[in-house]
């Protein structure tokens, strides 16, 4: 798989596309060697790897440079997490998205978080439409809603609210809908059965658990980075235990 069309089509197969997210060239190459069909970045992982908090705390130009290195070192389709594109105004949004797309990526994740709240549906739809006009049809625009992070009590009514966003985001030009934070299988199924867009969920367990839920894409988000950290600590601990600095 090495073209945008292949990446797009991967969201409409019987088997979900699995993305084990990377954060630098080394992790991207390891994931590629493991058999990945495509690569996806995690904004959380990239930021934390360089000592920054998530949420666009990593300076924009540094983030752009890190993403460029990953793009240069793989031939796989690459989808990048651009968060809210470091933007408040539509003008800044457009300018920043152009720089992200100039990297030659096949997909972007674009979220509706606005600091401690969410953009309302009409505002976020306009922002998605702005990106769609720039991206034309050569980039898979995965619209992320943080509704299930914003609300701690997940119900079928909340699923309906998320579906309202999915419908509006599709009309604005989104290709997929990403609903991180929702983990209840019954609610995931309810959302997937009524979603007008291919559904992307975030997991950190066996992907086979979601086989019958009509999910198009399974992302591990920051889990891959956190798992790698734990494994490094596990490996290094017996080596370093009891040693004195000299």
UniProtKB/TrEMBL annotation:
InterPro entries: ICL/PEPM, Pyrv/PenolPyrv_kinase-like_dom, Pyrv_kinase-like_dom_sf. The keyword Transcription regulation does not apply. Keywords: Lyase, Pyruvate. It comes from the Bacteria. Signal peptide: none annotated. CDD domains: ICL_PEPM (cd00377). GO terms for molecular function: lyase activity. SUPFAM superfamilies: Phosphoenolpyruvate/pyruvate domain. Gene3D superfamilies: Phosphoenolpyruvate-binding domains. This is Isocitrate lyase/phosphoenolpyruvate mutase family protein. The lineage of its organism: Bacteria, Bacillati, Bacillota, Bacilli, Bacillales.
